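Morning. Coffee machine broken again, so started the prediction first thing and wrote up yesterday's gels while waiting. Chain of 362 residues, entered below exactly as on the submission form.
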Amino acid sequence: MADTAKAAVFVGAGKPLEIQEFPVPTLAPGAILVSMEMAAICGSDAHALHHDSTPAPMIFGHENIGTIADLGSGPRTDCMGDPLREGDRILFRASPCGRCLNCARGNFCMVPPQPGFIKSDEPPHLQGGFGQYLYLNPNPWLLKVPDDMSTERALVSVVGTHTLLNGLERMGGISLGDTVVIQGSGPMGIGGLIMAKLLGAGRCIVIGAPANRLDLATEMGADDTVDIGYYKDAESRVTKIQEMTGGKGADVVIECSGAPAATEEGLEMVRFDGKYLIVGPWTDYGPQPINPSWFPRKAIKATGVLASEPRHIIRAMRAIHNMVEAPVEKLVTHQFPLAEVNEAFESHEKLTAMIAVIRPNA
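Came back before lunch.
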């Protein structure tokens, strides 16, 4: 193992990520070292890149898959009790603390910082996926990837799908045969499509653009798509959804686009006594106009979600491995070496990529 490792570092809003070199850290008791296979660019990474409030310096990358480079005195089994050894592929995150109010309520634990959200100016430095190695603090949460599951397919378990599974669970689920409208055709939207189909949706309609993303949505199981390049304004899109649902509206609408005005538009698409799940608006665009009368007049149940619990990652990986027939590995459309990390972000922001990944050790 080399003494140093390279990583792409966020150094300030609006600036290109810089490739920097760091010492490979010595493991504390219970910590492990991961050799990074793939790290996906998440929409939150792209938003953080332009925000003055994003702490710097930092190594992004929280949608990760890697191989165990050094177990040290760390866990010898994963969260399912399966034995671990160096060279195994794993999904991972910091373990819930088990002591905070969120843990007590079964919600997302925010006490231990997660990989990809930790400043890199102090040792052990390498705590984000956009680096050749990633240091996991003592007693991490680990899930071994099955040997017969491709790396791309396993990565999809932690890109959109697990968060949408959590959100749909919090929302009260999908009833068999429901019509589901998904606002947004990016990775989160496709994650919502995959989970909605798994949970029994009878018809899924994906709203988005460009055409290559809508084509992928169809390949992943969308029954219909609505191209915002053709239906350019909210009124025309709402009218189209009403037409497609016989004037009733959708049973469930999932907002995955993050567009500032999408929430008001989506509320108009929900049927009476329907459900609305809000996932996309991670970036704070400030106050947006929303008609609150939609909620009582249509008896809408609206829910938001942040990330997921470990159980959702387990279920997402198992489902994608054993139950999803669609070729979800095709969602990983662009792969970049570490040196081309800024080109990777450009492909994400210009929507030429569905999922753009960094391969730090390619």
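The chain has a mean pLDDT of 95. Going to sketch it on the whiteboard this afternoon.
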